[in-house]
Amino acid sequence: MLKNILTVGSWTMISRLLGLVRDQLLAAFLGAGSLQDAYQVAFRLPNMFRNLFGEGAFNAAFVPLFTMTLTNKNQKEAQRFANESFSVLITILFIITILAEIFMPQIVRIIAPGFTVDKMRYDEAVALSRITFPYMILICAAALVAGVLNSLHHFGVAAAAYVSFNIVGIAALLWLTPFMPNAAWAAAWGVTLSGFVQLGILLYAARNAGMRIKLCFPKLTEDIRHLFRKMAPGIVGSGITQINLTISTIIATLLPTGSVSVMYFADRINQLPLGVLGAAAGTTLLPILTKALQNKDPNAAFDAQNKAIDYSLLLTLPAAFGLFSIAVPVISTLFGHGAFTVKDVYASALSLQMYTIGLPAFVLIKVLSPGFFARGDTSTPVKIGVFTIFLNLILNLIFMKPLTYMGPPLANSMAAIINVIILAVILYKREALSVPIPLIKRIVAMTGASLMMCFILIAITHLFFINLPEQNILYRLFSVILLISIGGLLYGMTLHLFKVIDLRQFSTRLKKKILK
């Protein structure tokens, strides 16, 4: 399991690093102003539907059903089910896309009401949204094919395909910008073009794996109806998450110009460990849990869940505390160029600190949710999500005026913490989660080591790196590398003293891997 998590995590890390390059170009070309705000809202729309119909609800329902069909029947039946699901999904999304293109002005008014006072920003958001929205069809179809590959345990290929999104995005910004009205248009076209590339790569990989996914006449067969019944609560659950994010977007558009942008760049840094660790653990855990439960082996299911919790928190806790302590150096080094001012750097760094408060909770949600999905329960997370919608809305309204661009990130973090607590309690009461005492002790030790690292990094930053955003880029880069190195050494040495890890054993294994 660790090998699969590291495989998916490695490809996700490459994708995230390339994503940072893409975001650096966006920050340098557009800064944190009205045009950047318009682009971020346009990019938010297809992402919202991707999470609604693609990677979230669909995978939660499709992967267990496809895995069971493959295990209990045969590959031919699994192939038929995949083709039917692929065709029906694309048909539904195509209809949604046509309607969205027609009513885009009204949609933008709903999700970005603050833009209506600035006609240029509103018009740009409508135009850019019409360019990016077809990406939703392509990426949702890609999510289905990736689910097939993950069920076949081809985790690496599925994860590697998503690297192309950022490669195409970077190329579009660099080469299409001179031929477009502005860089935001180039970035928007890059989003849609990347969808074709990702889907093409995944279809080719599935064909090589023995699954030729293709379109057929869409029919509501019994298997598809069963899939929809499983999807329905998941769509509502994913919809709840998207409502939370939409609430944050609406609040941000009502804040001063640039708030949407500074929050976006902060979230991109926060998404680096979240995407690498949370998505990797959740993606690899679901089929493993499903198989263990199909084989009526609850101990294997408990073991897989606990390993996912352990591996995820081992890296997520230091990432959260570390990012909180060096938020200004990180944002300054990555985005403090071109049109992205020193003021933007400090604003984005404060937003990042609020996001990191909830980072471990967001990762644990990804790890605990498969505990419900693998058992065929997609409704319980929905009930929990309904509560978090109201909690997130109330917190956003409370924090909106006093905290401005820090309010939505803090509200999201607090809602995520409550969410993961409720998930864990329900799984425990259902005897679907059993965390042994040694794992609890390891988590306490990891938290203590992360806190110690955080305090020391904050002290070093305040003593030696004053006014860092105003320094030259080489100095900033050196500072970030030094701070990360110090933090990593402190964390590793403290865990070694707490006997959570054995550095000598780790060093030996690392040498063997390098030599191999």
UniProtKB/TrEMBL annotation:
<feature type="transmembrane region" description="Helical">
    <location>
        <begin position="272"/>
        <end position="290"/>
    </location>
</feature>
<keyword id="KW-0813">Transport</keyword>
<feature type="transmembrane region" description="Helical">
    <location>
        <begin position="245"/>
        <end position="266"/>
    </location>
</feature>
<feature type="transmembrane region" description="Helical">
    <location>
        <begin position="159"/>
        <end position="177"/>
    </location>
</feature>
<feature type="transmembrane region" description="Helical">
    <location>
        <begin position="183"/>
        <end position="205"/>
    </location>
</feature>
<comment type="similarity">
    <text>Belongs to the MurJ/MviN family.</text>
</comment>
<feature type="transmembrane region" description="Helical">
    <location>
        <begin position="132"/>
        <end position="152"/>
    </location>
</feature>
<comment type="pathway">
    <text>Cell wall biogenesis; peptidoglycan biosynthesis.</text>
</comment>
<keyword id="KW-0472">Membrane</keyword>
<dbReference type="Pfam" id="PF03023">
    <property type="entry name" value="MurJ"/>
</dbReference>
<dbReference type="GO" id="GO:0034204">
    <property type="term" value="P:lipid translocation"/>
</dbReference>
<comment type="function">
    <text>Involved in peptidoglycan biosynthesis. Transports lipid-linked peptidoglycan precursors from the inner to the outer leaflet of the cytoplasmic membrane.</text>
</comment>
<dbReference type="InterPro" id="IPR004268">
    <property type="entry name" value="MurJ"/>
</dbReference>
<dbReference type="GO" id="GO:0071555">
    <property type="term" value="P:cell wall organization"/>
</dbReference>
<feature type="transmembrane region" description="Helical">
    <location>
        <begin position="311"/>
        <end position="332"/>
    </location>
</feature>
<keyword id="KW-0961">Cell wall biogenesis/degradation</keyword>
<feature type="transmembrane region" description="Helical">
    <location>
        <begin position="440"/>
        <end position="465"/>
    </location>
</feature>
<keyword id="KW-1003">Cell membrane</keyword>
<keyword id="KW-0133">Cell shape</keyword>
<dbReference type="GO" id="GO:0009252">
    <property type="term" value="P:peptidoglycan biosynthetic process"/>
</dbReference>
<dbReference type="GO" id="GO:0015648">
    <property type="term" value="F:lipid-linked peptidoglycan transporter activity"/>
</dbReference>
<dbReference type="GO" id="GO:0005886">
    <property type="term" value="C:plasma membrane"/>
</dbReference>
<keyword id="KW-0573">Peptidoglycan synthesis</keyword>
<dbReference type="InterPro" id="IPR051050">
    <property type="entry name" value="Lipid_II_flippase_MurJ/MviN"/>
</dbReference>
<feature type="transmembrane region" description="Helical">
    <location>
        <begin position="384"/>
        <end position="404"/>
    </location>
</feature>
<keyword id="KW-0812">Transmembrane</keyword>
<feature type="transmembrane region" description="Helical">
    <location>
        <begin position="477"/>
        <end position="501"/>
    </location>
</feature>
<feature type="transmembrane region" description="Helical">
    <location>
        <begin position="88"/>
        <end position="112"/>
    </location>
</feature>
<keyword id="KW-1133">Transmembrane helix</keyword>
<feature type="transmembrane region" description="Helical">
    <location>
        <begin position="352"/>
        <end position="372"/>
    </location>
</feature>
<feature type="transmembrane region" description="Helical">
    <location>
        <begin position="410"/>
        <end position="428"/>
    </location>
</feature>
<dbReference type="GO" id="GO:0008360">
    <property type="term" value="P:regulation of cell shape"/>
</dbReference>
<keyword id="KW-0997">Cell inner membrane</keyword>
<protein>
    <recommendedName>
        <fullName>Probable lipid II flippase MurJ</fullName>
    </recommendedName>
</protein>
